[in-house]
């Protein structure tokens, strides 16, 4: 087992608690994105054991982050929304220099790449203007609700593999984000009545991860730089999804600038390290 992946999974799990921030972006940032895709795709093939050794610690880390930090992130977003979200804005913007280098923009950006960049950018900008119709936190659990949650989890999982699109943002747009987050909190309080909800979402996520990994791997294999152009558009567009607005006091301005710089610096430096790891594999 690659137990160091627990820490990588922990970082990815934190981002899935924030609507608009993608764990795919973090995977790209820390240099494991392509290996993540191939491991998920290989879990049902001959490379099952190798894929399991890579993925199992990653999943543990993500689970630990989601279970232990969901309450913390909820508190920060409710009490200090602007500094908290600006830290993630900095984190996302700090990824762009690495994407610029990986995309080889000066050599490869022609009409197809420009079109894909605009599509990716437009998709995220459009998503940011969608007003979700939120499902009640404690709905009646019906077969139809569980089917909808399965497909919501499947779609969220497919999108979370794409850098720039957050699975939690998709759930927010579909109206199931707060239901799922509150169900996780209820489970940590040993309320097992929410298990059907979480099982339905979990099964959808498993199916979505596999299907998404196959599709995205195909795109990177056969249309590498066009796909990277689309990813750049998605990442840039995701900034609008998480942009919280401007601070209203001098003190808050200082705190917000500091959190933005910290977020940007972390992702920029990790991008340099992650890019070296990715190109050395």
UniProtKB/TrEMBL annotation:
Statement: the UniProt record of this protein carries the keyword Membrane: yes
Recorded superkingdom: Bacteria
UniProt KW keywords: Membrane, Transmembrane, Transmembrane helix
Transmembrane segments: 6-33, 54-76, 82-102, 114-130, 150-180, 192-219, 225-246, 253-273
Pfam families on file: VCA0040-like (PF04018)
Xref: InterPro entries: VCA0040-like (IPR007163)
Name recorded for this polypeptide: DUF368 domain-containing protein
